[in-house]
Each structure stands twice: as structure tokens, then as C-alpha cells.
Amino acid sequence: MYSFRNDYSDGGHPAILKALTETANQQTDGYCEDRFCLEAANLIRGYINAQDAAVHFIAGGTLTNLTAISAFLRPHEAVISAESGHIYVHETGSVEATGHKVFPIQSANGKLRPEQIETVVAEHHFEHMVKPRLVYISQPTEMGTLYSKGELSALRTCCDNNNLLLFADGARLGSALTSNSGDTEFSDYAVLCDAFYIGGTKNGAIFGEALVICNNELKADFRYHMKQKGALAAKGRILGIQFKRLFEDELYLNLAAHANMLADRLQRGILDSGFEMLFKSSTNQIFPIFPESVIVELEKYFQFYRWEKLDDEKSVIRLVCSWNTDKKDVDRFLDTLGKL
Ligand SMILES: Cc1ncc(COP(=O)(O)O)c(C=O)c1O
């Protein structure tokens, strides 16, 4: 049964497995001070065109979010996020468990707008309340929608005007960068965000994320924060080797483009069969709306998440294509749908 449930269902790209095997007998320093991490960090600095960015490798997305956000904030400071934001809904309150309130903002398409941020700031104006200090976004959003470069720039301006930090969760950044309807490139994130991360777990790596800190004021002692939060891996080389391989050539972007291309094929096929989407997506996650009877039949052959119940008859499901999804899997889904 093929799973469209997620983009982390596959093990790891063969080129990465090969790089890990070929280096397995070499001894290195620990805790991300090995030559592979140093090289990977340099390659990433080249891609984002920011030679003085700090790059840290961390095992997973939740750990990256909570380590970075808690390091960037003072005890009384708080985070603003879309109500669908991953840190607000799906990380077991891990940012809040570090002592920082997360304000959820309603957003049908998963994106934040400057005026919504400004309202939260205006409502929190003195020391009897927490102080909003960091805006958390993900690119793409939880809904598979994308911030344009113009929208990101507007968020940056809003953050500058209100003394806020902008942090972008890039667990699926590759998908955003290679989307047909996206207009951002790697270097934009280094310019517009105080910090962001480049997701490996969902794009060919066995696991791992690369956190990039661009704002000089946030760089000091970050490795202390990592160690204290259990985010500094003794065998950090495993992360370095993977990111080195992903950024040695265009592998990172090629894998993301493949996932987007197959999600687009799947979306077009479903639309051609007469069904609708919750949102038209241009990333590797799509959100078709099906009657319950169709969902029950599809569940016999494929795995996917039921995303949202719209009414007694219809629900939204989420289908995710990955770097390893095959055109055959997509076509089999469409054939099965066509026969229902
Ligand atoms: C946007 C986003 N951020 C963070 C995470 C958390 O990653 P992890 O499961 O590696 O902690 C996910 C995982 O699904 C995600 O989609």
C-alpha cells in the first residue's frame, strides 16, 4: 500500500547513503566540529549568499524550533504564529514548555499578514503582559501555500517597525524554492529573516535540519543553547555528511522539484476527474476534497491523512509527494480514482 501520508516515509537518498558508507571508517571530531559539518556549512553559505551566516545542524524540526526560538527570546518575550503554525498545533507545546507564550492568529490560508501582527503588538504594551518579540512563519505554510517575496518583505518591514524577529521554519523550504508559483530564492531568506532553517528530513536526508542564523545579535553562545537542549549531536558528522552531499551539487533543489512535479501531476489529475481542492497548491502537499465514499475506497489502496471534515458528506484529505515518489504511484492513484 503506497503512502502519500508524508514526505518522511522514505529512508534516505542513495547518494546520501553512499556518502555515509564511504566515510564510515574515517574518524572525526564530534559535536558538529568535524570537517563535513564545516564543509556543509560553507556550501550552504554559498547557496544563500551570506558568508557570515552561522549554520548549525540539528536532528529534527521540533528540536530546531524550540532550541532556536528559546535561545532568541528573553524570559518575558512571546511568539506570534498562525493558528495552524506547526509550533502552535503539532509540537506538543514545546516552545511554550520553554516558557514563551505563542499567540495564535487566525488565518484561512496559513499565512500571517502585517496588520494582524501589529494588532497583537498594540494589544501588548506594558509589563503586565508578555511582550511579542518573534514572528514564526513556515515556508511553505501548513496549508501548502506560499509567501511571495513581496509578502516576506512586508513581514520584514513590519518586524523592523515593531522590534520583532522574523523566524522561518523551512522544514519544506526546498518545496517553496522550486515551486512553479514561488518567487523566492535561497538568498532572500538570508536577507529577510533573522534566522531560518533548511529542512533535510523531508527532502532526501535520513534526518536533519540546517539552522541558519543571519542576525549577528542572535549568534553568540548558540552552541551552549544547543547543548543544553540536547540538540548538539556527538556524531554531528552524520548531519554534516548528509547536508554536504545535498549541497555539493543541485541535489537538494532537484529532489524538491521532483516532489513538487509529482504533486502537481496528482493535483491536475484529481481536478480533471471533477473534484475540488481546499487550496490550489504549488508545493508537494495537496488537499483534495472527496466524498466519504470515495475516501473509504481510496483508503483500501493508499495511505494518507484525513485533514478536515467539511460536512457529513465531504472531507479534505492531504496527499504528500516526496523526493522518492514514483510517477507510477501517482498514476495508480489517479487510475484507482477514475474507476470509483
Ligand atoms: C513545518 C514543519 N515544521 C516542523 C516540523 C517538525 O519536524 P520534526 O517532526 O522533525 O520534529 C514539521 C514536521 O512535520 C513540519 O511540517
From TrEMBL:
<dbReference type="InterPro" id="IPR015424">
    <property type="entry name" value="PyrdxlP-dep_Trfase"/>
</dbReference>
<feature type="domain" description="Aromatic amino acid beta-eliminating lyase/threonine aldolase">
    <location>
        <begin position="9"/>
        <end position="284"/>
    </location>
</feature>
<dbReference type="GO" id="GO:0006520">
    <property type="term" value="P:amino acid metabolic process"/>
</dbReference>
<dbReference type="InterPro" id="IPR015421">
    <property type="entry name" value="PyrdxlP-dep_Trfase_major"/>
</dbReference>
<dbReference type="InterPro" id="IPR001597">
    <property type="entry name" value="ArAA_b-elim_lyase/Thr_aldolase"/>
</dbReference>
<keyword id="KW-0032">Aminotransferase</keyword>
<dbReference type="GO" id="GO:0016829">
    <property type="term" value="F:lyase activity"/>
</dbReference>
<keyword id="KW-0808">Transferase</keyword>
<protein>
    <submittedName>
        <fullName>Aminotransferase class I/II-fold pyridoxal phosphate-dependent enzyme</fullName>
    </submittedName>
</protein>
<dbReference type="GO" id="GO:0008483">
    <property type="term" value="F:transaminase activity"/>
</dbReference>
<comment type="similarity">
    <text>Belongs to the threonine aldolase family.</text>
</comment>
<dbReference type="Pfam" id="PF01212">
    <property type="entry name" value="Beta_elim_lyase"/>
</dbReference>
<keyword id="KW-0663">Pyridoxal phosphate</keyword>
<dbReference type="InterPro" id="IPR015422">
    <property type="entry name" value="PyrdxlP-dep_Trfase_small"/>
</dbReference>
